[in-house]
Amino acid sequence: MTKSPQHPASRSDSGKGPAHIRLSAPAKINLYLEVLGHREDGFHELITVLQTIDLADVIELRVREREPAIPVGRADVCFELTGDSSAVTAVVEGEDQAAGRVPDGPENLAVRAAVAWLHAAGKQDEVGIDLRLQKNIPAGAGLGGGSSDAATVLRGLDQLLGHSEGPALAPLAAELGSDVAFFLVGGTALCTGRGENVIPLAEPDPFDLVLGFPDFTIPTPAVYAALNAPALTRAASPPRELQKAWANRLAGATPSDLEQFFRNDLEDPACSVRSELVDLLAPLDAHLSGSGSTLFLYGSDTPTTRPACRRALMRFARHRSRKR
Ligand code: C5P
Question: Ligand 1 pocket by C-beta < 6 Å: which residues?
């Protein structure tokens, strides 16, 4: 796994090794998302191409002595959540509330990742961890923020405490969520299965995009349920063939090429969960990221003058794809 060069770990006072690390946890968009069918385990079999972008949360990890009062066998992870209030608590109503709120306790995926890593490494009784998450990526938005936080915690603990001999990260990531394994790699990648089989792809040149954040969130399970997909009957093409096809498509791809390849089978079901999306996607020629609610457009032309945007009270932000 590659280490992020721009976020070095600081040394501990004792000089024994790094005790603190600060890492950026990027968001993603889906350049392509095809649902092959509904699986017996309740998940959906996918072919998706994911791309990290420059919108990111920040994860800080500090290794310290374990609190003696914590019972043996229980991991000691102290969690602090900070950040943009629009990312921490989305403006949502009614039953969508849970989807838009970032958990500030042990149920947060970043904390679960830290606990899972400590147990897998057998270090739950050896050290305590301070975990600070600065949330900039909106939740319930199809940008993979929670999954990226979890993957970044796994990478961070591996760098601080694993010293290349820690537990394998991919199985831990797959346990935590379908997109988590992608964020261990980042950049541009083809993901199959329920999303956890990750094949890194050669990356297109960095490109601009505009994200549009409607004032509602969409829970992913509701979108998959609305898809009403048939049972999985056909297998995906062998990974090697898919990889070759996507490598050809992406080599030298311009944003207008990416536009041509775009597909998202979750757009229609997301529109049936939140009908307001219909009036946003089509008039803007925008795409939905994953299960939404974030929209994106290739290029840097912020379409705030178009009537649909004025009606929707959407917030727009310019971003750029981010390489591995
Ligand atoms: O794996 P993750 O926790 O991110 O998935 C959230 C929900 O999205 C799942 O509980 C499931 O309802 C749905 N999902 C799915 N098929 C996938 C990925 C997610 O049905 N491949």
Answer: 43-44, 46, 177-179, 194-195, 220-221, 224
